[in-house]
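Notes for week 9. Today we move from apo structures to complexes. The key idea is that a small molecule is not decoration. When we ask for a structure prediction with zinc ion present, the ligand SMILES becomes part of the input, just like the chain. The input block below holds both the sequence and the ligand string. Read it once before you look at the output, and try to guess where the molecule might sit.
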Amino acid sequence: MKAIAVTPAAKQINVINQAEPNLSSPTDVKLRMIEAGVCGTDREICAFEYGTPPVGMEHLVIGHESLGEVVEIGAKVTRVKVGDLVVPMVRRPCPHDHCTACRSSRQDFCFTGDFTERGIKEQHGFMAQFIVDDEKYMNPVPADMRDVAVLVEPLTIAEKGLAQVWNIQQRLPWGCPIVPGRAQAHCHKAVVLGAGPVGLLGAMALVNADFDTYVYAREPAPNPKAAVLELIGAKYLSAQTHSLEAFAADVGNIDLVYEATGASRLAFDMIQHLGINGIFIFTGVPGRKAPVQVDTDLMMRNLVLKNQVVFGTVNAGRETFEASIRDLQIFKNSWPQAVKSLITGRFPVEAHRDLLVGKSAGIKNVIQLN
Ligand SMILES: [Zn+2]
Ligand SMILES: [Zn+2]
C-alpha cells in the first residue's frame, strides 16, 4: 500500500510502498483510509522541526487528522462494525504504572511525556491506505458526515479547551441568566486570535455556545476566512486596520480569549486586554525565536486584580472526540456553506509535496488516500 512518509535523518519526504497492516489482537480494527487533513504540525514535521519515527525505523508515516472506513474487525470488537466511518484518536498512552492520566485513559494529560502519537511521535500516522489500531481509539461518525468528518480532529482542540473553560469557570458565578432561545454563554464576549482552521473551528464552537465572538487576524477583509465568519455571525477584524488596542476597545470586557496563531508576541499583548474574571486559552506551539519584552507588572496586576486564568491545552481524549463529532454535525446543520468552505480542496497523494512543503494556501487542504 501507499503511504506518505518522512525520513528525518535524510531530510526526505516520499510516497512509500509498505505492507498493509494486519489485525494482531481480537480488539483490533482495520481501516481503509479515506482522507487526511494537512495542518501546521504536518508541515513542521516536513520541515524536520520535529516528528520521530517508530523505534528502530528510519521513516515516519505522517498524518493525524483523518477519516477511515472499517473494513475488518477482530472477534471481540464491539464499538464499530464493517462499513462504519471512523475518526481515530491520535495519542497513545505511556507504559508507566505511576502515570495516573494514562492509566485512566486520559493520555492527553500524560504526566511522563513518554506517550506516543500516530503520525507525530514514534507511531506511524494516517496518511496511508490502511491502518490498524485497537477499537478503543476509534470514534464512529454518522455516514452523513463523510464530507466534513476530516475536521473532527482539528475541532477537538476547541472542544477540549471549552470543556475546560466550563469546568474552570465554575470557580465563580459565570453562568448567564437563562433566556429562552439563547445558549449558555449569551452574556459573554469571546476573542479568537487567528483565522486558520483551528481559529475558525474555535469561532464556530464559541458562536454555537452563543458567545459574542470576535476574530482578530492578519489579512485584511474581504477574504475567504472573513467570509466564513460572516456566515456564522462572528465579527472579523484585521490587524491591518485595527491596532490591538483599538480592537480590544471595540470588544469591551473580554471574557474569553482563544489563541489559535502560535504567535507568542500577539498572545501576550492580548493577555493585557483580558477582562474581569476572564479566561485565556493557549493552543498554539510557537517556534523558539528571540525573547520579547512583556510588561510583567501589568500582567501580574491584572491576573490578581481581575481574577484571571490563563491555561494551555493539547491533544484530546475520547470524550472530546465524541463532543467534536456531535458539534460538527450541529455546525453542518446550522451553517452548511461555512463548514463546507473550510475544506479548500481535496488532492491526490501525488500532490502531497505542494501541500506539505509548498506555500500554505487556503484553509484546510485534504489528501485523498483511496
Ligand atoms: Zn493537526
Ligand atoms: Zn502517561
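The first strand starts at residue 2 and ends at 7.
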